[in-house]
Design goal:
Layout (H helix, E strand, L loop, with lengths): L4 E4 L3 E7 L14 E7 L1 H11 L4 E8 L2 H12 L3 E8 L4 E7 L5 E6 L8 H6 L1 H4 L4 E4 L5 H13 L3 E5 L8 H4 L4 E5 H8 L6 H15 L2 E5 L4 E6 L2 E6 L11 H14 L4 H16 L11 H4 L2
Parallel strand pairs: 1-4, 1-8, 2-6, 4-5, 8-9, 9-10, 10-11
Antiparallel strand pairs: 2-3, 6-7, 11-12, 12-13
Helix pairs in contact: 1-9, 7-8, 9-10
Bound molecules: alpha-D-ribofuranose.
Alpha-D-ribofuranose binds next to strand 2, helix 1, strand 7 and helix 9.
Length: about 300
């Protein structure tokens, strides 16, 4: 039985600004605080998986700069295998994140070295894919790399979880090769062409995407919970009521925890329940990677 996972994706240095409210167009606001934290959807998901005890390898690129050093050190510190994270001449990716007092955030990314990730990096990682249970992908690296990675993972017997974030047009044929599609309400609305932000519409949206692409599908709707639809059934898992501190990385915590549970043999519903628990811990603490739980943090 395969017991490991591979993430091919982004690494960013996050600049998290604490502001009283989101800016109006043309307005200048003063932040009350600035925190620098390792991030990037790919790296965050890899960290969550490793923190939960899942042997996880990261494939990606950072620059030959101080930010790259910070991101590498963070991944290594959490036990992620970084042998396939390549240093390039491009600057390390970064994200400008604004957080308001209720914990909600906006995020703007700068691609940087993440767009140096290549088909060659996927080829180099094939021995890992040949042993891994799941490949986990997001949409912060070039699309052609994701396409190639999906193809190779399938050929090598590795299942594919695509967290289509941020949402971007993608060929139906590619989405049809994915085993599990995970979207938040904004991404789901992008692919569906209609709203999926309430429990009923998220459930209907997950069913529609499942029918369209054949993949199991999860639609997360933040503080409300997540809807799932797969071969094994459908349902809605309510989010836990928590005092949100800062929600950066909550979605990544959810995706990483889903992957961990699925590698361990959970049903889709069981995996959603476990992921919901993990994401609740993550939103209650600041930063993306530092806030994610270990197994000890979520044991009752
Ligand atoms: O999902 C949160 C992440 O999105 C941040 O860490 C940021 O780097 C962006 O990739």
């Amino acid at each position: 039985m395969r017991k490991s996972a591979v993430v091919i994706g982004s690494l960013n240095h996050d600049y998290i600004l604490e502001i009283p409210r989101f800016c109006e167009v043309g307005e200048t606001l003063t932040a009350s605080g600035l925190t620098l934290s390792p991030g990037g959807k790919g790296a965050n998901q890899a960290v969550q998986m490793a923190k939960l005890g899942l042997p996880t390898a990261m494939v990606g690129c950072v620059g030959e700069d101080a930010d790259g050093d910070v991101l590498m050190a963070s991944l290594e510190g959490y036990g992620v295998d970084v042998a396939h994270v390549r240093r390039t001449g491009e600057p390390t990716g970064m994200a400008a994140i604004e957080v308001i007092p209720d914990g909600r955030v906006t995020c703007v990314i700068v691609k940087g070295a993440n767009y140096a990730v290549s088909v060659g990096d996927v080829r180099a990682a094939e021995p890992l894919l040949a042993e891994a249970a799941w490949l986990v992908l997001q949409m912060e690296i070039p699309q052609e790399v994701n396409r190639f990675a999906i193809e190779r993972a399938r050929a090598l017997g590795c299942k594919v979880l695509l967290n289509a974030a941020p949402a971007a047009p993608m060929e139906e044929g590619v989405l049809r090769q994915v085993d599990l599609l995970v979207l938040n309400e904004i991404e789901a609305a992008f692919y569906l062409g209609h709203d999926a932000g309430e429990p009923d519409s998220a459930l209907a949206g997950a069913a529609e995407l499942h029918a369209r692409y054949g993949a199991d599908c999860v639609v997360t709707i933040g503080a409300l919970g997540s809807a799932f639809r797969g071969e094994g059934g459908e349902g809605f898992v309510a989010a836990e009521a928590v005092a949100a501190v800062e929600s950066t990385g909550a979605g990544d915590s959810y995706v990483g925890a889903l992957a961990k549970a699925l590698v361990d043999g959970a049903t889709l519903e069981g995996a959603c329940r476990f992921a919901t628990r993990c994401a609740a811990v993550t939103v209650g603490r600041p930063g993306a990677q530092p806030s994610m739980p270990t197994l000890a943090d979520i044991r009752p």
